Amino acid sequence: xxxxxxxxxxxxxxxxxxxxxxxxxxxxxxxxxxxxxxxxxxxxxxxxxxxxxxxxxxxxxxxxxxxxxxxxxxxxxxxxxxxxxxxxxxxxxxxxxxxxxxxxxxxxxxxxxxxxxxxxxxxxxxxxxxxxxxxxxxxxxxxxxxxxxxxxxxxxxxxxxxxxxxxxxxxxxxxxxxxxxxxxxxxxxxxxxxxxxxxxxxxxxxxxxxxxxxxxxxxxxxxxxxxxxxxxxxxxxxxxxxxxxxxxxxxxxxxxxxxxxxxxxxxxxxxxxxxxxxxxxxxxxxxxxxxxxxxxxxxxxxxxxxxxxxxxxxxxxxxxxxxxxxxxxxxxxxxxxxxxxxxxxxxxxxxxxxxxxxxxxxxxxxxxxxxxxxxxxxxxxxxxxxxxxxxxxxxxxxxxxxxxxxxxxxxxxxxxxxxxxxxxxxxxxxxxxxxxx
Amino acid sequence: xxxxxxxxxxxxxxxxxxxxxxxxxxxxxxxxxxxxxxxxxxxxxxxxxxxxxxxxxxxxxxxxxxxxxxxxxxxxxxxxxxxxxxxxxxxxxxxxxxxxxxxxxxxxxxxxxxxxxxxxxxxxxxxxxxxxxxxxxxxxxxxxxxxxxxxxxxxxxxxxxxxxxxxxxxxxxxxxxxxxxxxxxxxxxxxxxxxxxxxxxxxxxxxxxxxxxxxxxxxxxxxxxxxxxxxxxxxxxxxxxxxxxxxxxxxxxxxxxxxxxxxxxxxxxxxxxxxxxxxxxxxxxxxxxxxxxxxxxxxxxxxxxxxxxxxxxxxxxxxxxxxxxxxxxxxxxxxxxxxxxxxxxxxxxxxxxxxxxxxxxxxxxxxxxxxxxxxxxxxxxxxxxxxxxxxxxxxxxxxxxxxxxxxxxxxxxxxxxxxxxxxxxxxxxxxxxxxxxxxxxxxxxxxxxxxxxxxxxxxxxxxxxxxxxxxxxxxxxxxxxxxxxxxxxxxxxxxxxxxxxxxxxxxxxxxxxxxxxxxxxxxxxxxxxxxxxxxxxxxxxxx
Lengths: 437, 543
Fold this sequence. Notes:
Number of domains of chain A: 2
CATH superfamily of the largest domain in chain A: Spore Coat Polysaccharide Biosynthesis Protein SpsA, Chain A
Number of helices of chain B: 16
Strand content of chain A: 5-15%
CATH class of the largest domain in chain A: Alpha Beta
CATH class of the domain at 461-541 in chain B: Mainly Beta
Oligomer: heterodimer
CATH superfamily of the domain at 461-541 in chain B: Golgi alpha-mannosidase II
Strand order of the largest sheet of chain B: 1-2-3-7-8-9-10-14
Shape of chain A: globular
Structural class of chain B: alpha/beta
Helix content of chain B: 25-40%
CATH architecture of the domain at 461-541 in chain B: Sandwich
Radius of gyration of chain B: 23 Å
Number of helices of chain A: 19
Distance between the termini of chain A: 48 Å
Number of strands of chain B: 22
Largest interface: A-B, 16 and 22 residues
Structural class of chain A: alpha/beta
Strand order of the largest sheet of chain A: 3-2-1-4-6-5-7-8
Helix content of chain A: 55-70%
CATH topology of the largest domain in chain A: Spore Coat Polysaccharide Biosynthesis Protein SpsA, Chain A
Largest sheet of chain B: 8 strands, parallel, barrel
Largest sheet of chain A: 8 strands, mixed
C-alpha cells in the first residue's frame, strides 16, 4: 500500500511540475482571456528593434481577416532587457483603427509571460502550446518577432487552411533571396523529405500554424523531456504532424527578412535542427523505414519567384573552413563516415575554389552516414552534429558556386536533383542503421 | 402624481391598445380592455405606460399615419373610454405617456386633403410641396424596402409632396408657424386631459433645408425648444421623449441645455447589448457608452431591448450589421429595412439565462428602462406576418380561447395569435406564469421591485470597471451615499473575475436579490466566480 501511495504521490508531483510551466500570473491572464479561436504566439528575446511592425501586422491581420473570431496574442519572453514585452502588451488596437481603418468587433488581448531567464525556443513554444491547449484555441499561429517583412495577410494565409479546410499544420513557403535558406535547401528539406516522405519545404519554420488538436497532441510528446529534441521543437512538430497522419499543407507567404545573425550561430542552429531531426529518427524508425519516395504537399496561395538580389559571400573563407574541418576532424570522421566517403571528402578538400565541387550524391551519403552514426551514438551526439558543420560549409560553397549564375528555375532543378539523391540513397541508410559497425 | 423628474425613476411598459385586451369581442384590443388589465400592469411593478398611436387612422402604418389628432380610433373605443382608462391608471399610480406623431400625418388627414385640394388653399403650406422631385437631394431614404424617393407625386394638385417615411405619410411643414401652433394645440388638448407626457416620433426630420441631410437641423431644435417652453410654462411636470435614431453625439443636442427633450432613446446601445452577448465581450457596450456624451442633470436616456419596430441596425458599422444579421437573423424573413423584426425571447433562443441577463442590464444601466408588452412572459413572434406585425401579435393572457385576448372568433382577430408549440399562448401566457414562483413573469416582477428599491439606478452616476476578463461587464452606480456594484457575465461559460475595488475598501457586499452578505472588500483584487450568463447586483455597505 505504501508503495502505491508513494507512486501516486510521485505521479502527482510530476504533474504538478508540469503544470508549473505556466506561472500563476500567466495563468491569471489566461483566465481573463478565456476560450479563443485563434492564438498568435511570439517567442521573444530582446526584439525591441523589430517587434513593433510585427505586432502591428498581427493585430491588423486579425482584425481584417478574422474580425469575428476570438483571438489573443501571447508572447513568451526569454528574459528581454530591452522592454520587448512592454512594447507587445502596450500595442493598442486603437492605433490599428486609426492607421488602417480596421474596426475591432471584439477585445483583442495581448499578454506576455517570462518563461525563463534566458531564451530557449523550445520551452517558449511549449508555453505557447500549453496556453493554446488551456484556451482551447482552434488555431495556434507562431510568428517570428524578427519577421519585419510580415504582412497582415500572412495571418489569413496561415490560419484559413486550418479554420476553413481542416488542415492541422500549415507550413510556410517564403519568397527567398536565392542564397538564403542554404541549410534548409541543402539539408533539412531534402533529408526530411527523404526520411518522412512529405515535401515540406520549411520543416523548421519560424512561422507556422497548427490546429488545436495537433497542439494538444504535440504537448504530450516525449520531446519535451529530451533537451536535444526540445531545442528543435519546430522540426519535431513537423515530423509529429507527418507521422501522426495529421493533414499538412503549405502556404505561400511572401518575402522573408533574414535575421541578422553571426556566423557562430551556425553550430547552435545545426544542433537545433539537424540534431532534432536525427534524434527523431530513433523512435520513428518503424515509420520512416517503410516509406519510399515522397509525395507532394497541398500548397496554397500564389507562388512567387526567387529573388535575385546579390548577396556577398566569402567563398574563400568557406573553403578554408571546410579544408580545416576535414583535416582536423579526421579522427572523428573515421568513427562517423564510411571509408569511401571520407576518402572522397579528403580529395575534395584539396581542390581550389575554381574547381571545388561537393557533389549532391556525396553530400546526401555524408548526411545519411551522420544520421546512422548519431543513432548509434558512436561518439557524443552533440559532437557528431558539430562535426557536420565544416562539411556543410563545403556543401554550401558548392551550392553558391553552382547557382551563382542560375535562375530561380535552375536552383529549383538542382534542389530537386539533390532531393532525388537523398531519396535514392535512403535504402543505404536503412541498411547501415542497424549495422553494429 | 406631481413630482419633478419622475421620469428618471420610471419603468415604462410599452403597449399597443390594439394588441392588449379586447373587451367587446370584436377581435381588436380597446381602451376598456386595457383598463381591465391595469391591475396586471400594477402587479408587474412598472410605473408608466407608453401607448402607441390610438388616434383615428387608415392604419396603413399601424397608427403612425394619423388622420385626426384629437380623437380615438373607433376600434379602440371613445374619448370617454380613454379618459376612464387614464383616470384608472392614475388611481393606481401609473403614469401614461402617449404617442405624438408630429413629423407627418396620414394622407387622409383633413389638413392634407385641404392642402392638396388647390394651390391656393390656406392649408397648402402646411405640407412640403415642390414642382420637382429633385430638391433636398442629399437626404437618405429610410424605408429602403418600400420607397424609392422621399418625394411622391400628387395627381390632385399635380405637384410633389415630401415624405420621409411611407408615401402615404406626408411631412408637415414646420417652417409654417400655423403648423407649429396647431401641433401645440393638439398636445395641449391631451395634456389637459391628464396625460403625463409624449413620445415624439421621428423628431430629427421636422425641418428641411437644401444642401443638408435634412436631419438634426438647427431649425428643428428651434421648433423643439419652442414646444418645450410651452410645456414647461403650462404643464411643468410633463415629459417629452424623443424618438431620434441617431448616434449619441448627434442625439446630445436634443437635450439642449435641459430645454429641449427630457428623455431620448439610446438607439445605438440596444444592438450592442445583443452584440456583446453573442460575442461574449463587453467591448461593444462599453465602447458605445464611452462615446455617449454627458447630458444635463434633468435629462435621461431611455433604454430598451425590444419595441414595436425592428431591432434597428442603422446605428452600427457595416461589420457589426453583417454580424448581427448572421447571428440573429439568419432567415432573410427576419430582416426588415436595416433591422431585425424579432422579439426578445426568440432573439435569445428562448434561453432564460440570457433573457434574465439582458433584462438585468436593461434595468441597471443608466437610463429609464422600457419593457415591451409580452416580453415579460417571453412571448414569441411571427416573421411570416408582413412589415413589423410579427412583433405586434395579441397579448397572451391564458391558455384558453384566443389566449384570453378576445372572445371573438379566431378568424376575426386583428392578427393571428402565436400558436406554435414553443411560444404559442398555450405554452406562454400570463395565467400559467402567475402560478409559478420561478416563471419569467415572477422573476421580472422581482427584479423590477429591486430596481425600484433604489434611486441609484435611475439617477446615479456610472463608473465602469475594466477587469482583465473582457467577458465580464462591471460597473458601479452611485447616488449620494448609496453605491451599487453590478457585475454581468456575458459568457455562456463560468468565469472568474478579479475586480479592483480598493477604493471601496472596508465595505461589505450585499447581494440584492437574496440579500446575502459577501466578504468585505480588502486590498487584494475582489475575486468573483460567476456561472454562465450570471449577474450580480451588490449594495455596498460600510458596517
